């Protein structure tokens, strides 16, 4: 979806609009990935037990570290770097360099920390790569400091995710000893309610987003978000 829109704007010479589109994409993806990341970390053990039985609980640290990648997926740059073909070799050089960094980090990581060290090295290298490529994207499109206002709501989403994390931890504590499946369902519902409530109260949703959500809720649940 982004690639076709970026190509259209590029043909019109609207580079700055492309940058703004990418910032708005970061905002929208963050609104989804932040709560998913928080939920996976807080309720990851119950999730593993529900799907794979307690025998696999030892894999929780790997799940938790790997889940952190969701935070960086929001910083997407591929549509711009694919559209601006003169930068394709720059992207290739950056990725080759980061592959070398990954190998350099993974070898001692595996030696000292086993599989957790390997996944930690991968997450760190991908994070660095994402930051570098996104910064390049912002430079290509001529984004100015004042344009970063388009992702100001990410702070609200992050605050809501932090509060839902606290709610999830309290739920796990209150339901200690209950079946994992019950904790998973109850925790997910409570965390979701807290996140949506904070996001709506903080005014983080734009008018078109709230209209789209209300259109779905009115058909499915006979309920709408407050204006």
Q: Main attributes?
A:
227 residues; mainly alpha; 0% strand; flat
How would you describe this protein?
The chain has 227 residues and is mainly α. 78% of the residues lie in helices and 0% in strands. It has eleven helices and no strands. The longest helix has 28 residues. It starts with a helix and ends in a 7-residue tail after the last helix. The mean pLDDT is 90.
> On the 0-100 scale, what is the average pLDDT?
90
Helix-strand topology string: HHHHHHHHHHH
Q: Termini, distance in Å?
A: 29 Å
Find the structural class using helix and strand composition.
mainly alpha
What is the rounded Rg? 20 Å
Shape: flat
Characterize the largest beta sheet: strand count, sense, and whether it forms a barrel.
none
Blueprint (SSEs and pairs):
Elements: H1 2-11, H2 15-42, H3 44-52, H4 60-67, H5 69-73, H6 78-83, H7 88-113, H8 115-140, H9 153-174, H10 180-201, H11 207-220
Helix pairs in contact: 1-2, 2-9, 3-10, 4-8, 7-8, 9-10
